[in-house]
Amino acid sequence: MSATRPEPTRSISQSSGSIVRLFGLDPASYRHHRLHEPDRSYVETDCYTDIWIELLHARGNEPLAAMGVTMGVDFEGDQWTFFKPLPDELELLYGIDVHEMQPYRPLPLQLVEQISAGRTLMIEVDAWYLPDVHGTSYRSEHVKTTIGVEMIDAAAERIYYFHSTGLHELSGDDYRGVFRLGGDLPPELLPPYVELVRFDAGSALAGDELREAAHSLLRRHLAARPARNPFLAFGAQLELQLPRLLEGDLADFHAYAFTTVRMLGAAFELGAAHTSWLLGERGQPAADALDRIVEGSKALSFKLARQRPFDPSALIDELATNWDEAMTRLVALVG
Q1: pTM of the entire structure?
Q2: How many CB atoms lie within 10 A of CB 254?
Q3: I need a labelling partner for 161 at 20 to 30 A (CA). Which of 50, 91, 179, 227 fits?
Q4: Per residue in 21-36, pLDDT tens?
């Protein structure tokens, strides 16, 4: 029997004057998904996937079902795959359609219209204006990131937004900065990338149906996994880059670490959680192998951060061995 779409905590698109809400949530009482608990090695994954984890969780869906995509990550020559839930899988699992839209007028106007219709927008913004990254990018560094909007009060210039590990609030100058309102903007400034998220593309799956669909998707991702152990290519590239990293400044290290050891660690930690959720005790040996990759990524990151000469070959070999074991076990279980 098909599962019906889970209802949000309150009815979609509540409005009060100039305020429109998607799920009627409050940042002060919002409880994030367990994938963002502080005891995890990588509490944050990547900005886009983190939003989907919380947006699905807020809607009443299980985001772990969509994390089989991490099994296909590869070393792309100078970075690891920027993994994210795929649009066709979001539609299959949760009845959600996501596609690019044209920001042809002020974004607050489009947000009011779309949230009023029970939809929301995913918007590429400058982290300079996001208070939840206080201590890193907020008011200190211009960094591209993405937010998903839960509530907008256009009159008061205030929004609630999904970003990083939860639901947050911004207003005032941050609101105007995020939406590029006021001031003299250079004519060559391009509009941000915006996606429309619709929740009416079908029924969300739940229970056994959700697991069966996730099982099929995991089989597909395993079939499309890298043909060659990706850690072999990563090790070869790291050997070439290591002298530059050891002689460079801290900014060079952080840029490299974010796209390599951190990205692979976050991906395989989600992969381990997906395996445990989907396969239970049968999948635990594979999940353990994936968790060992996570630990290896942390160890490699610490060694790189010290900026002292070292031989990474033993760590790379261990990472490669654990990847082989995890993939072999999963293929045997999933087919």
Answers
A1: 0.93
A2: 12
A3: 91
A4: 999 999 999 999 999 9
